[in-house]
Hints:
Elements: H1 5-17, H2 19-42, H3 61-73, E1 78-82, H4 88-99, E2 105-108, H5 115-121, E3 136-139, H6 150-156, E4 161-167, H7 180-193, E5 198-202, E6 221-225, E7 239-243, H8 245-255, H9 271-301, E8 305-307, E9 319-322, H10 326-338, E10 360-363, E11 376-380, E12 386-390, H11 395-411
Parallel strand pairs: 2-3, 2-4, 4-5, 5-6
Antiparallel strand pairs: 1-7, 6-7, 8-9, 9-12, 10-11, 11-12
Bound molecules: pyridoxal-5'-phosphate.
Amino acid sequence: MFFSNETLQLVESAEKELSVQFAAADNIAMKNQMKILDAMQKHRLSETHFGGTTGYGYNDGGRETLENIFASIFKAEAALVRPQLISGTHALTAAMLGNLRPGDELFSPTGRPYETLAKVIGIKPTPGSFAEYGIVYKEAALAADGSLDYDAIEKGITKKTKMAAIQRSKGYCWRPSFCINEIKNLIKFIKKIKSDVICLVDNCYGEFAEEEEPVEAGADIAVGSLIKNPGGGLAPAGGYITGGEKYVAAAADRVTAPGLGRDAGPTLGLTRLLLQGLFLAPQVVRGCVAGSALMSLVFSNLGYSVLPLPFEPRTDIVQAIRLGSAEKIKKFCRAIQQASPVDSFVTPEPAATPGYSGPVIMAGGSFIQGASAELSADAPIEPPYNVFFQGGLTGFHARIGVLNAAETFLRDTFV
Length: 415
Ligand SMILES: *Cc1c(COP(=O)(O)O)cnc(C)c1O
């Protein structure tokens, strides 16, 4: 990779302008590091917990300690943290289906949920979807500016509403990610209308980007993927479901089998990696947040619309950029792929991807397949041609990703 003086100056001057944002990210990382250390000490984490189990995975003290540590960090009664949860979508599906019954209504107050969930829920007719089990789906569309539409939310809650699924991060939507404070207000609003609505937060990409997590904002359940923020880049697979004891137990019965719940599930020798990744996560997330802010300012200076804006507070690691053409999306993703440690020599192309409706391009030369806590960019190939950038196992690597994207866009002429 080669960076011209023009590129270096563009990125360096942006970094100087962002010093206040970087200091804020340091402060949040420090608080989260302390929180995680406290939880590990409180639960007397010890060498003996790293052994792991096979087969049924009964009497796995390491797994129980891992789950107790997650519960403490998220200020929750319980947690299910498993390598058997293969993705965020899988964890969300289990948390929802475990807590819903035929005739119940599932309500999204944050607009259309993440792409892969459209099939899970049955918004897009799919065999085995929630719709086939008689679970009714309702949503409140977001306002035109992407903010919450409280009138529509009030109208969407009925006496059958069992669960509200709140999506913190933007997914592939051009809308703000909802910060912990907004989620707090939203949950208060929902519970005032119907106090027994189970409030679930899709926390993907949000963990450790702020000082508090969704349960502290009143959520009953929070769910996420270990190959995003809380795996710290080391977790080779996994997901988590945390929250109230009865909700986590119901989700566990869906992950394993009714009656088996949390008592089974081998850790296969992964416990140490999951805990070590968790321990590193605040530092990794700090680098990702700083990298996204830098990308935001650099591409804003290059004349593109960006979301969030460079100096806005952040609640996740995702940076959206409106590039405006399929060609530019491909160029951007190629620049990120080229700056990756693995498969740097391959050219990402848009392709059909399980769970997504149209072709999606994904750049990510990552150590863990699909791990988007690592330097990555992805986009559906459709107007208005937004790309979503995130990740970087080190802040230095995120910076290199920004440099290479900037170099590409300064050098290339687009038709
Ligand atoms: C990544 C993500 C998910 C889950 O995606 P998986 O690829 O299944 O892990 C869900 N919701 C949001 C908002 C996400 O960003």
